[in-house]
């Protein structure tokens, strides 16, 4: 499979068309990367260390942050390096590895987001059975299943993409090895690959999207039946952060992959890709921490504890 190509390395074009802004791009993406990693690590530490955050919702949130740390690290470090060097090269196998881990982490994250929606559905619509339906064993099984499905999804697309011959141009008009950019430079008919992207990707996104939609339809129906305005507000507040993250992730990701490869546009698609590969992972911990009283309280206790231990 791997010896069908005459290309041994790829040139990542990325944002190299505007050379005068390379340093500015480097600083901007470095700041975003640091904020993303630190923010998600804080969420992971809080959900692990604070006993008040030992519920299934925060178990899934901690896993989401764990995924985001590696998700953003799959593309950004290589992109940062490309801003500082003239030869923006990635090896053939390095490109395959980057595509695999990107797809693996992105698809796993989409399933985790769906699992979080189901968790909110059970918590609000079946509160008396919540402890039974969302016990520790079930939560772990859901996370393991999401990782296994994500791995299968990534393997399918990575193998099918790099089974194609690359014997012409080796310039990838993107800032990382993405399916759309690679299919555009393959010197073979990519119809089967495009169908595979739509079919497999569509099943994953449609399945997760339907689960999220159905969950929130039931949630909204149940919340509207709550007589107290304060009760309705509290119920909605536990869901709004998750909804914002879902819309950001699925909206941009769906636009990128659920359309014909022929409509690929270098500048427009690179800008959109930055949003769901770089910006969204940075926003996740910010959105959850700003709108969540329990996260803010856990953070306050952690800071107070650190200050107290420092003074004594």
Plain-language structure description:
It is a single chain. It is built from 10 helices and 3 strands. It is an all-alpha fold. The chain has a single domain, classed as Rhodopsin 7-helix transmembrane proteins (Rhopdopsin 7-helix transmembrane proteins, Up-down Bundle). It has a 3-stranded mixed sheet with strand order 2-1-3. Helix 3 runs parallel beside helix 7.
Break the fold down into its secondary structure elements and pairings.
Blueprint: E1 9-12, H1 22-49, H2 56-84, E2 89-91, H3 92-125, H4 130-133, H5 136-162, E3 171-172, H6 179-185, H7 191-224, H8 229-257, H9 266-290, H10 293-311
Parallel strand pairs: 1-3
Antiparallel strand pairs: 1-2
Helix pairs in contact: 1-2, 1-9, 1-10, 2-3, 2-9, 3-5, 3-7, 3-8, 5-7, 7-8, 8-9
Label the CATH architecture: Up-down Bundle
**Low-confidence stretches at least 5 residues in length (pLDDT < 50)?**
none
Biggest sheet features: 3 strands, mixed
The number of strands is 3
| Assembly of the depicted chains | single chain
Q: Count the DSSP helices.
A: 10
Biggest sheet strand order reads 2-1-3
The top level CATH class name: Mainly Alpha
Query: Helical proportion?
Result: over 70%
The string of secondary-structure elements, in order, is EHHEHHHEHHHHH
C-alpha termini separation: 62 Å
Beta fraction: under 5%
What's the shape?
globular
Q: Structural class of the secondary structure composition?
A: mainly alpha
């Amino acid at each position: 499979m791997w010896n069908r190509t005459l290309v041994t390395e790829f040139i990542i074009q990325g944002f190299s068309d505007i050379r005068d802004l390379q340093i500015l791009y480097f600083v901007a993406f470095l700041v975003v990367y640091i904020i993303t990693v630190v923010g998600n690590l804080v969420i992971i530490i809080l959900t692990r260390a604070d006993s008040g955050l030992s519920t299934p919702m925060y178990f899934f949130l901690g896993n989401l942050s764990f995924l985001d740390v590696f998700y953003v690290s799959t593309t950004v470090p290589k992109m940062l390096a490309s801003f500082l060097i003239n030869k923006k090269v990635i090896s053939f196998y390095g490109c395959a590895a980057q595509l695999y881990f990107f797809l693996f982490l992105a698809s796993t994250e989409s399933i985790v987001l769906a699992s979080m929606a189901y968790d909110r559905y059970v918590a609000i619509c079946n509160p008396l059975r919540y402890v039974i339906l969302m016990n520790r064993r079930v939560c772990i099984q859901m996370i393991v299943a999401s990782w296994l499905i994500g791995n299968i999804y990534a393997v399918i697309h990575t193998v099918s993409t790099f089974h194609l011959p690359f014997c012409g141009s080796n310039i990838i008009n993107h800032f990382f090895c993405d399916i759309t950019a690679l299919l555009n430079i393959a010197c073979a008919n990519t119809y089967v690959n495009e169908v595979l992207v739509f079919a497999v990707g569509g099943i994953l996104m449609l399945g997760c999207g339907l689960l999220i939609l159905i969950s929130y339809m039931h949630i909204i129906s149940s919340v509207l039946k709550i007589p107290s305005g304060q009760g309705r507000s509290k119920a909605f507040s536990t869901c709004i952060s998750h909804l914002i993250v879902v819309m950001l992730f699925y909206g941009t990701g769906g636009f990128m992959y659920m359309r014909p490869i022929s409509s690929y546009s270098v500048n427009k698609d690179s800008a959109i890709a930055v949003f769901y590969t770089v910006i969204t992972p940075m926003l996740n911990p910010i959105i959850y921490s700003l709108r969540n009283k329990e996260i803010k309280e856990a953070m306050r206790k952690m800071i107070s504890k650190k200050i107290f231990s420092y003074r004594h």
